[in-house]
Design goal:
- This protein is an alpha+beta fold.
- The protein is built from 8 helices and 17 strands.
- It has helices spanning about 1-50, 60-105, 155-170, 180-190, 190-195, 295-305, 325-330, 340-350, and strands at about 125-135, 175, 195-200, 205, 215-220, 225, 230-240, 260-270, 275-280, 315-320, 340, 355, 390, 400-405, 410, 415-420, 425-435.
- The strands form 4 sheets. A 7-stranded mixed sheet has the order 3-6-2-1-17-14-12. It has a 6-stranded mixed sheet with strand order 7-8-9-10-13-11. A two-stranded antiparallel sheet has the order 4-5.
- Strand 9, helix 6 and strand 10 form a beta-alpha-beta unit.
- The longest helix has about 50 residues, at about 1-50.
- The relative contact order is 0.13.
């Protein structure tokens, strides 16, 4: 019995000892696990400071952090790239500024001040040669240069000289005035003129200085000749100077004036199709008598061509009885609506684009006394009597290749016509081109 008690006691002690060791080992294991968890939580808290939480495993998230930092650096590097573009924009501003002077050079085309870029000489367009010639009515006339020595200046002789002048200048269009019956008969019957030139005219009913009584329907026609081989007549007409342009009347009621008519023709080039208007001019200026007929007549002409279609060409040539650059000339000119082609030729000559022949007075004698005077060397800068002009409606695609007063006298030996002149006015020869490729508007201003 005692022995069983001893065995039971030993077994109890052994069991107690075994349970105590197990508890201690579990507590130590639990403590170690808790310590590891606490350390892992500390590590996790430290990692939250360095990066944002990511889904998935932590280690791949850690490997992505440097990539994110590199991407941020790349974004930062793009900003300087944008900055480098800004100087490019700034450089473009001076480029635009550099274009402004180029625009400024175009200003003289509108008549503004400044240096214009010269147009390169070229030959585009349709050439037309104009001859402006006063005919000095009919019969034997005094006051015609070349009459000294008894040379005959009958209409017969002078009409043959005109034919020679037309051939010599190779005129395409002749604009005349003071064309009485004898001149019209010559144009219609002379073999050379009638075969090669068409004729446009209208008789002007007139009375001398407005005096009551006699009326002459065959006085002061303003005939137009045009070369038929080159041009076809598209339209034509006429008007009187004054408040009633459709019927004869003294210009603007001026009793000191004469009836005056203007003939016009619309011509079309058969080859190029270019069209232009040609006006034969004969103004009676009464400023020397205290009147203003010349100024008002010029205003009527300017108003007439200003109503033509935009881009059209119009040329007005004849005896204006208004001296180049005189007070009346300046009072009546409107350079934005009508340009003197002598001025345009002088402007173009400055850039070597045209040829200027003779300049000076277009009168070769005084008509009041019949005295013969040589005006070749007269200074015509202001008030000398250069009164025959070719004006034009401004058009950028129009150039002047040649301008000259024709001082040539003519002798026609086969008809025994002695040396002499067509009239007491020299002719004016102007060669123009219309429909040009280049823009010549900068030259269409007062010289």
């Amino acid at each position: 019995m005692k022995r069983w008690l001893v065995l039971l006691l030993i077994l109890s002690l052994t069991l107690a000892l075994f349970c105590g060791c197990k508890t201690k080992n579990e507590e130590d294991f639990t403590a170690e696990v808790d310590s590891f968890v606490e350390q892992d939580e500390d590590d996790t808290e430290n990692k939250d400071i360095d990066r944002e939480p990511t889904d998935g495993d932590e280690e791949p998230a850690d490997t992505k952090d440097p990539v994110s930092e590199n991407q941020a650096t790349a974004d930062d590097k793009k900003e300087p790239t944008d900055d480098t573009k800004e100087p490019i924009d700034e450089n473009q501003v001076p480029a635009n500024d550099n274009k402004e002077p180029a625009d400024d050079t175009k200003e003289p085309a509108d008549g503004n001040d400044g240096e214009a870029t010269p147009v390169t000489k070229e030959t585009s367009g349709t050439p037309v040669t104009f001859l402006i010639q006063n005919l000095k009515t009919s019969g034997t006339q005094k006051g015609v240069y070349g009459e000294r020595g008894g040379y005959s200046n009958t209409l017969y002789n002078r009409s043959r000289r005109l034919r020679a002048e037309i051939q010599d200048t190779e005129a395409d269009v002749v604009l005349g005035c003071e064309g009485k019956t004898g001149w019209i008969d010559f144009f219609e019957t002379d073999p050379y003129i009638s075969e090669n030139y068409g004729l446009v005219y209208k008789w002007c009913e007139s009375t001398a200085h407005g005096a009551a009584g006699t009326t002459n329907f065959n006085d002061n026609a303003t005939p137009i000749l045009y070369r038929k081989s080159r041009f076809e007549l598209a339209d034509s007409g006429y008007f009187w100077y004054g408040d009633t342009p459709d019927e004869p009347s003294l210009p603007f009621g001026d009793a000191t004036s004469h009836f005056r008519i203007c003939s016009w023709a619309k011509l079309r080039d058969k080859q190029s199709g270019e069209e232009f208007y040609a006006y034969a001019i004969h103004i009676h200026d009464t400023t020397h008598l205290g009147g203003d007929t010349g100024i008002k007549s010029m205003g009527q002409l300017i108003s007439t061509i200003d109503k033509l279609p935009e881009g059209s060409y119009a040329f007005l040539g004849g005896d204006y009885n208004i001296a180049y650059r005189s007070a009346t000339y300046y009072a009546s000119m409107e350079w934005d609506k009508m340009i003197d082609l002598q001025d345009m030729a002088l402007n173009m000559k400055d850039d070597g684009l045209t040829e200027i022949g003779n300049t000076g007075c277009s009168l070769c004698s005084t008509w009041e006394t019949g005295e013969t005077q040589d005006y070749h060397d007269v200074d015509t800068s202001h008030n000398a009597r250069h009164i025959d002009h070719l004006m034009a409606k401004p058009n950028p695609h129009m150039a002047v290749d040649y301008w000259s007063i024709n001082w040539e006298g003519y002798e026609v030996p086969e008809e025994q016509v002695k040396f002499g002149y067509v009239s007491d006015h020299y002719g004016v020869v102007v060669k123009v081109r219309i429909g040009t490729d280049a823009d010549y508007s900068q030259y269409q201003v007062e010289h």
